[in-house]
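User: Could you check the structure of this?
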Amino acid sequence: MMNWPKLGVLVALAACSKQASPPLDVPADVAVDSAPLDVATDTGPQLPPGPPLPSARGWHVGKTVVHIHSAYSHDACDGEVSKTGNVNSQCLAQLRDGLCGSGLEVAYLTDHPSTMNDRTFPQLLLFDAAQGDALIGPSGAPYGNVIQCPASATATAHELVVTAGFEATHLMPVGLHAHVTQAAMEGGSLADAVTLSDARARVDMAHAAGALVVNAHSEQDEIGVQRLVDAGVDAMEIYNIHANFNTILGKSSGVSGAPKLNLARIFELENFLGDPAASPDPDLLLMVMLDLQPEAAYVKWQQVLAIKHVTGVLGNDVHQDVTLDAYCGPGGQFAGACDGFKDQYPHLVALLTNGGTPILADGARIDSYPRMLKALSDRPLVAAATATAERPDVFKDALKAGRSWIVFDLLGEPTDYDFVGEKPGGYAEMGETLPVGSKLWLRTPSSCTPARWAHWTLADTQNAADLTTIRTIVWYIAPGATQAENVLEVPGFAVAASWVATKPGRYHLETRIVPRHLRAPLKALGDHADAEQRWLVSNPIAIQ
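Assistant: Sure, the predicted structure tokens are below.
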């Protein structure tokens, strides 16, 4: 388990119109059909050749996050529950605002055991009768809380379901129906140093309590591929914001290698601390590091897929707890060393001289719930008619099956994307298995649109001088392989392509984007919009 590091702030120092589509990059042994989509009719009956979109197959694309810390975590909300024994009610209110404002439909909270295991489920579920909340589950044993999210500047009015879970060491059960034993929570490590029998016992206890079991911080060396295969986890993080922060700080707990502090990115925080009129959009803060995200978890996931299915998910890991010591103040670690930077980085030096919580140009803290919960999400495909009270378990079932995508929402909202296989009488979704010789289909996003909170418009994606571009990679993982193969690339928006899967293994998609539509809101840091980023990733379809 990890906390937002005190130096985490220093890390920060540190669409999408149709583009012309060049020919597909096709290996000689892959047969591909492709056709540009007619975006104007893509949701109607005149679809180009290929399967109908998920909505026409009866699916709703949900939105959830599986790694969130509330005020009931010892290190969240500036650690108040550990310091005083009291839960910060203001921080809980900010969490509710952030959950609603990000448009989530299910929030899987994951608090740390030491401060959540003696709380009731209504507390952990953020239940507030005065605000019209409604509990889900048997009387006296609720496992979900329905919050009526009002319309706001960042999201439409909708119902949000909050669930409880916990994060121990690599063991992260989400969507619990009841507390797990104290021993499993406090000593809940899945690391390689723990015996496999102990690791499996903890996973089994979490399953018995109704949870989906996620491996948190897959990037760390202390948990390897074989343990992830053998422990029985349902899902694993293929990206975690904390781990990305640590790439800038030049360190990462449990990851080998010499620290390499990225001072250039650290000093970029100065741009977010000054005049609001000159500041880059503070909600794009992660853009100063997203292109440097660690690849260890992503590669490890692909290596696991060479052996068995484990669903890939994203880890937000927000704590709202970043504070800085007075590193440049009297007696501070860097006292006297900061004077030479005062003229060029006045706001940063002032922050490091006085210490405290970094407040960005919009008046909100650097790691606020409303800011961080906008950054990324998991997108499970669930039955379109799913009732609100059924969401927690239905979403978990979809995630366990692998019928889900991951999306970096910070970069824009993808539309009309798909990955599906053909089978007799219908279609095979992500997470399913098809025989060798089956046809697989992909649809690249037809567009990249701004969320309600975004400070850019669709017109920004149509700037001929700075055109946003994408490419979609088909990754193939052979049984027992240690490295995935890029077997097909499909450039451009709104393209449908199919190929025949001639070898056993697993296939998944990755769409990468050069988000030049963010150049204007990034202002002085606009060059970050020229870096290609991972935008969305599918879970695999297996071939055997």
